[in-house]
Amino acid sequence: MATILPSPPKVGMVSLGCPKALVDSERILTKLRSDGYQLSADYDEADVVLVNTCGFLDSAKEESLAAIGEAIAENGRVIVTGCMGREAELIRERFPDVLAISGPHQYEEVVGAVHVAAPIPPSAYLNLVPESGLKLTPRHYSYLKISEGCNHRCSFCIIPSIRGDLVSRRPDAILREAEKLVAAGTRELLVISQDTSAYGVDLRHAAWPWKGAEVRAHMTDLARELGKLGAWVRLHYVYPYPHVDRVIPLMAEGLVLPYLDIPFQHAAPSVLKAMKRPANEAKVLERIRGWREICPDIAIRSTFVVGFPGETEADFDYLLQWLDEARLDRVGAFRFEPVQGAAANDLPGAVPEELKEERYARLMERTAAISAAKLQAKVGKTLDVIVDLADGAGGATGRSKADAPEIDGEVHLRDAMVQPGDIVTVLIEEADDHDLYGVPVQ
Fold this sequence. Notes:
By secondary structure, this protein is α/β, with parallel strands linked by helices.
């Protein structure tokens, strides 16, 4: 006699914000799938919809509120979590029918709310999930979160009030997760946190047993061990602490990708002081030169804020001159936007919106020229490229070691009979301001 299994509830997910929030979404879905829930890619089939919100900027909050409104309109049964969950009253006022609200990385609360909203029929056959967990990224790359929270108190940022102070994961737990991801097909590990350089400070850089030896809870030690797993290892959100210098030789050795994502935010000392960030920008330039001497292929990306309160034309010109000397490979910029609860909101010297726009345009024009020149210098060279998309007819898109997914440039391939996740050697034939174009070499 055939066994008829009960039909498990289906959960939909809308995930907004940064890669750290994406990892939170993956953990939530992994737990729900292990509990027997199915996943739904559309509103119609979902028994309940989760909206993982972002609350870093006012524009991000509006996007989150719009996503909640859409989910309620399309489905009606909505649970809200994530950074904006700290503003439950605002969400309730706008959307009184929301079933439950929780803050960032409150996994148990989210899962519990789903169990209440859509109880699952008990069945031993439904609790199935891959050992590596469920992913919202392609199979060949994975974000690896090593800590939560941040100990900095930058005047423009409310992340510590949302996510709390630094809480690092044990290095052996991180390495076990990384091993499972690589075994499941991950070929690129993207290390993320709020402050990767501070990893392990709260653990006093204690050591844990690993593979018959010990590994410290320290960025350098963790990067070295991750580099032994056979996947590309890319470091994000790295503050330029002195010990970052010790990671550069690992890049030269090929254990870690020659790539650093460092949020400099500005260069003018007066602006950095108002931001409550380190202001030894001259020494940073010296260190960048030193990094390039050790690892000539290192790519450095960063983000900057224009129009910060009190930023003068002289401050902005200083930033442009600093960028001319630093010659960063990839640069993103934000116009300063007051965030509710940020100390910077009370600073004098607000910059008019039209001036913010003008400075933003000038910065992006300057950095685009630097990027174009750097990319043009790669024409005629061969680069390793990881394939993200392939059309099966010879066209493909991938990334070099200098490019992180979603935020950096791409390498567009012709005559490439490849599959996503393949790593191929590519002859670069052309370049524009942001991307490269080439053909695989045999």
